[in-house]
Amino acid sequence: MSEDSGAADAQFARPADVEGSFAPRDGAPPYSPPPPTVSPNERAVFGRPPGGGPYDPAPGERLPPRAVEHSPVPRMFAEVFGAGPDARDGFAPAPGTRLPPSGPGPAAPWWKPGAARDPWRDPRSQFWLGRPAVFTGARAEQLDPYADTETELADADLADARPDADSPDGDEDVLETGTVRQVRFGRSTWIFTLLVALVAGVLGGGVGWWLTDHVHDALHRPDVSLAQTDNPVSRAPNSVAGIAKRVGPAVVSIAVKTPDEYAIGSGVVIDKLGYVLTNNHVVAGAIGVKGASIVVTFSDEATANAQIVGHDPTSDLAVIKVPNEQLTVAPLGNSDKLAVGDPVIAIGSPLGLQGTVTAGIVSALNRPVKATGEDGTSAYLSAIQIDAPINPGNSGGALVDGAGAVIGINTAGRFAISDGSGSEIPVSGIGYAIPINHARQIAQELIRTGHATHGSIGMQGVTALSGLQVGGYVKQVSPGGAGAKAGLKPGDVVVVVDDTAVQTFDQIIVIVQQHQPGDRISLTYYRGSRKLTTTVTLGKG
Fold this sequence. Notes:
By secondary structure, the protein is an alpha+beta fold. 20% of the residues lie in helices and 28% in strands. The protein contains eleven helices and 27 strands. The protein has helices at residues 3-12, 40-46, 75-81, 145-149, 151-159, 187-219, 240-247, 280-283, 436-449, 482-485, 505-513, and strands at 134-136, 139-141, 172-177, 180-185, 251-257, 262-269, 275-278, 293-297, 303-305, 307-312, 317-321, 343-348, 356-372, 378-386, 398-401, 406-413, 416-418, 424-426, 431-435, 455-456, 459-464, 471-477, 493-497, 500-501, 520-527, 530-537, 539-540. The strands form seven sheets. A seven-stranded antiparallel beta sheet has the order 9-8-5-6-7-11-10. A six-stranded antiparallel barrel has the order 12-13-14-19-16-15. The longest helix has 33 residues, at 187-219. The chain is flat, with a radius of gyration of 57 Å. It starts with a helix and ends with a strand.
């Protein structure tokens, strides 16, 4: 050990006067109370009284009573609200004592001061209550009090009265009673009054009839003839009216009747042999049901029974056949040449209204749509989205382009969406149609074999909405299926299929179903953070 290291150890060694592990602490500094912060005035008011201990009074000690001096009550209040001189203990009079009456004495209810000057109370007054006044000589006169009260006598005198000499024809009966002259009408007067009323009624009715007849004639003219223009209406062949006139007869109304239900849809005549293309969900209710019938109604109101040639729930398409007598066949176009914004026309039987025509534009192309039928089957479609109104009954009808060619089969309309709380929000201007190129391929298979085939990838999944990747999340892979053979596993997120970016798992199913079994498609997917690519050979769906 060097000298430098020994000096360093000496600096950290235990002092000689310390026995424990730590040196003794310094003693606590002496306590000095802080300077007073209360003013003398505050101490005098709120401080402890002189001579008192920590608590004054001591706990449990009874305080001596102190008389409380109240300010005297003003004299005015004492006289008004105070007790009287004869009150005892503040009560006057004593409880139960009857109060003596006070105030002026009751006055007579009938005779009051000045009653002698009241004519209605003076029995000697020249006024009295009696019969109404009578008019004699164009002035009012009052009956004599005795005649006025003697009603029976006056009536008897009136009954015994005779015609006056001044009325020789007896039209008026006059009774002289004192100064009162009473008159009553005779029979002639009453007859004259009735004749006047009858003549007035006849004249009034005649005038009313004349006015009514002339007013009616003034409102109605039997010789009126409204003018009509003869200007010719020019309709271009590619106008909505021109296209509807050419294609409308090729669109039929389909009624499906079973013992339990009745449904209405539409269809398009696609071949002169009587084949009609429609939606699977239109005729699905009649498949395998005893007693079911399918009736097709043409544009000229003619009807025919139809039979199901084949149906494909996967694409929601079906073909039925009707007798081939003078049928109008719809021209089928090329849906691959459509562009967003192109004008389109929808023809069908919405709500059973046959031959209804609505117009709109192409809103979007290759829209993945999941259509669920009433029987619970689901169809995944790569649909044409349009804003032409599509209502129940339009299903299976024709979607026509501006040249008059059928470029789609109307299949579904969006009427409401859920807001997440169970209620629905109304939606308008959104309809879907199956592209005619895909529908033509399915229809040919159904006519040839009665069924259609589709490719299958052998996977199930959902849409990935969280994480870094957005696409189709694989939840389950069928053992031995096309996906399993290509190396796909649950948890993979598919983002590209055949050079097409996908954002939902429904898009993967739509692309796969448009291929045939044995077709090879490429997939790009994420497994964790690794981006991988594989080729899948599709199986048979």
